[in-house]
Amino acid sequence: MNPKVRNLILTESQKACLVALRSRKESKTDIAIQAKLDLQKAAKALEALKEFGLVRRGEINSWHLTGRGTSCRFKTIPDRIRRGSALPGLGARRLLDILDRPTRGSELAERLGITLQRVRQLVVKLHAQGLVKFGDPERILDVVSRTKDKTVLLSRDEARVLSESRMPMQRMSQR
């Protein structure tokens, strides 16, 4: 596409990816999570933004804004709705079935008999559908739970601080 075109029109998913990039997200997974998209839809949106000259792909699969991408103005149109895209697939339903409490990604992979990469793909898709949440958005497989689960999830740093603050009391009780 000609980069001098003034009337730029983006889909909602392309816009969401551009906004995520503008807020310093660089990996496809981080962009998909912030944009609330599954990995496939995020990849398509990023490729379209690349064709428009708004983003470029870095050396290690990172995505970066171009000069035009940081300052362009655009109009937005809705995405085309794919049949069945709002429903979790078979793998996602299996994951939801065993997610009865906050669980680590490695445990989910073991219980389902699938790879960690597949668990990552499924939880990103379920997050886009609003069905799961993460304890730590930076480490999405540390703790995953259903969105409706009322359990308070702590990031790795929060859990470490909490456990360190309890250590002096444990030492005192051992004396």
Mean pLDDT: 87
Instruction: Count structural domains.
Output: 2
* Secondary-structure content class: mainly alpha
Ends apart, CA distance between termini = 73 Å
Rg is: 20 Å
Strand content: 5-15%
Task: Please bin the fraction of helical residues.
Answer: 40-55%
Instruction: State the strand order across the main sheet.
Output: 1-4
- Total helices: the number is 8
Oligomeric organization of the protein chains? single chain
So, the CATH homologous superfamily of the largest domain? Winged helix-like DNA-binding domain superfamily/Winged helix DNA-binding domain
Largest sheet geometry: 2 strands, parallel
Low-confidence parts: none
CATH topology (fold) name of the largest domain: Arc Repressor Mutant, subunit A
Characterize the structure shown.
- With 175 residues, this protein is mostly helical.
- The protein folds into two domains: 9-77, Winged helix-like DNA-binding domain superfamily/Winged helix DNA-binding domain (Arc Repressor Mutant, subunit A, Orthogonal Bundle), CATH 1.10.10.10; 88-175, Winged helix-like DNA-binding domain superfamily/Winged helix DNA-binding domain (Arc Repressor Mutant, subunit A, Orthogonal Bundle), CATH 1.10.10.10.
- Helix content is 49%, strand content 10%.
- The protein has eight helices and six strands.
- The protein has helices at 12-22, 28-35, 39-51, 67-71, 90-98, 105-112, 116-128, 156-174; strands at 9-11, 55-57, 63-65, 75-77, 132-134, 144-146.
- A two-stranded parallel sheet has the order 1-4.
- Strand 2 and strand 3 form a beta hairpin.
- Helix 1 packs across helix 3 (39-51) and helix 2 crosses helix 3 (39-51).
- The chain is globular, with a radius of gyration of 20 Å.
- The N and C termini lie far apart (73 Å).
